[in-house]
Every structure is written in C-alpha cells, then in structure tokens.
Amino acid sequence: MTKKEAFDLLTLIEIVYSYWVMKSEAVSNWLKLCESMDHEDVKRNLLNHVKHSPYPPLLEEIAVFKEGSIYLLDGIDDHQNPSSRCLHEYSQRTERQIHH
Where are the annotated segments for Disordered (predicted)? Predict the structure, then answer.
C-alpha cells in the first residue's frame, strides 16, 4: 500500500467515525507499516469493520501484511470494552471540533 492509499483509508476512518480523531502516533504507525500491507485487503477489512462496529478500528484489527512480512503490533487487551480499546489510537473529538 502506498502512503497515499494509507491516507485515503485514514480519511475514510475519520469521515465514518467523525466523533473520533486518530492520534499522531497511530498515524505514524500506519505510515511506517503501509508499504508492507496489502491495500485491497486492508480496505476490505475496514469496510467490514464499519458495518459491525460503532468504534473506529485499531490498526491490528484491520491490518493485512503482504506474504513474508512479519510485524509485531502492540497487543491491546481483548477483554477491554471497545470504547476503551480505541482510546489507544484515537481521541474523542470535542463538540467544538465537530462543528467547526
């Protein structure tokens, strides 16, 4: 996946989940790893996530690495509720940020 394709997916995430903003560290992680990921597979996972979750996806939930790529992503506690889990990569937008 190119950086432009990664930005397009990040933009889609912020449009769909407009009450959330991705933290800069998460954006940086996406850009570091994007060339090792398959764009179409990640996009498919993202669209599936959007259908089933009111919370934005974590990178580890939708990442699909190209064959032969090995990356360890920070493990997030699967037992946390979804809104707590997404706080690792997102911040809630303030009302002012939403309307302006």
Answer: 80-100
Q: Rounded CA gap, 78 and 52, in Å?
A: 16
Least confident segment among 24-28, 77-81, 84-88, 89-93: 77-81
Query: Which structural domain, as residue segments, surrounds residue 54?
Result: 3-99
3's CB contacts (< 8 A; 6+ apart) are: 31, 34, 35
Show the tokens assigned to 93.
């937008």
Report H helices in the chain.
Answer: 3-16, 24-33, 39-52, 59-62, 82-86, 95-99
Residue 98: C-alpha distances to residues 10, 54, 58, 62, 85 (Å)? 17, 17, 21, 25, 22
Stated pTM of the model: 0.77
Number of domains in the chain: 1
Q: Residue 70 region, left (φ>0) first, then alpha (ψ -120 to 50), else beta? A: beta
> Using CA atoms, how far apart are residues 57 and 64, in angstroms rounded to an integer?
13
Q: Which amino acid is at 73?
A: L
